[in-house]
Amino acid sequence: xxxxxxxxxxxxxxxxxxxELQSIISQKFTTLEQVEPREKEFLAEYKAYxxxxxxxxxxxxxxxxxxxxxxxEKWLFLELPLSGQLQLGYRGKDISFDHNSTYLIATxxxxxxxxxxxxSHTTIGIERQMINAYxxxxxxxxxxxxxxxxxxxxxxxxxxxxxxxxxxxxxQELVRGGSLFNSPLVAxxxxxxxxxxxxxxxxxxxxxxxxxxxEACLPAYVRQARDYIEANLDHxxxxxxxTAAAGxxxxxxxxxxxxxxxxxxxxxxxxxxLEAARRTLLAAESLTTSVTEVATQWRFFHLGxxxxxxxxxxxxxxxxxxxx
Length: 324
Fold this sequence. Notes:
The protein folds into 2 domains: 200 residues, Jelly Rolls (Sandwich), CATH 2.60.120.10; 106 residues, Orthogonal Bundle (Arc Repressor Mutant, subunit A), CATH 1.10.10. Helices cover 44% and strands 25% of the residues. It contains 12 helices and 10 strands.
């Protein structure tokens, strides 16, 4: 995954003219649907860089700018508001997020950007083909399934916050113009670090080689119990049911789960149900879906405990996830 390119500046402009902004943006990247500045002083800035195989942009727009990118299947975007608020119309939902959030979106579906206040933001453009090739290289080409990386909010966990700080640092250094980034070696390492962090943080079907090796070493009874749990997340499941599916004594099963997952079978069941609830909340429409509905769908009947456990795992309340 070496790239022959270092860092190349693709675009750098600043304008106080709405018509000029519309012309430049439309020619270079997207369709600018409308310019309705409500600020007394109109000032827009936009910079774009190629870093290895990545495209990293940094823009600042006044209130009222509305942009609709031309859909393309080849790209994934990491969106990071740096100041102000960014609103996205995406997958039938209005998503509003600020400088504490990072959102991964797929550009093959319609996206509508609406910039609120004096919004500054960074976008990391990732070619699907490149991150797919990188993931395959990490597993020595041994993953037969097609690699998929789902659009998603990356959350507010400490790990997600670290990833965001790294992306902000790279964005800031590009603007400062450090010559170190011109090195093809440095640019490639930046690209690969972003790929690795994204694979580790996001919801995807990538299985690292070490995970595949662990899977091969997993005792059959642990695998049977795990598969039973994951196939019955929305059904009543007791410890006796899991033990029966594993075909071993409870103490043997507990020891196996502690050794391979560091938690008990019932704790594993709760974690997987919480993950399923999060996926449902992220995909749901907030006007027609309630947290209570989602919680009970995944067999959480004590809403206070559900909210507490959910917040401990994902760093935000279920209601906050649903609003995104």
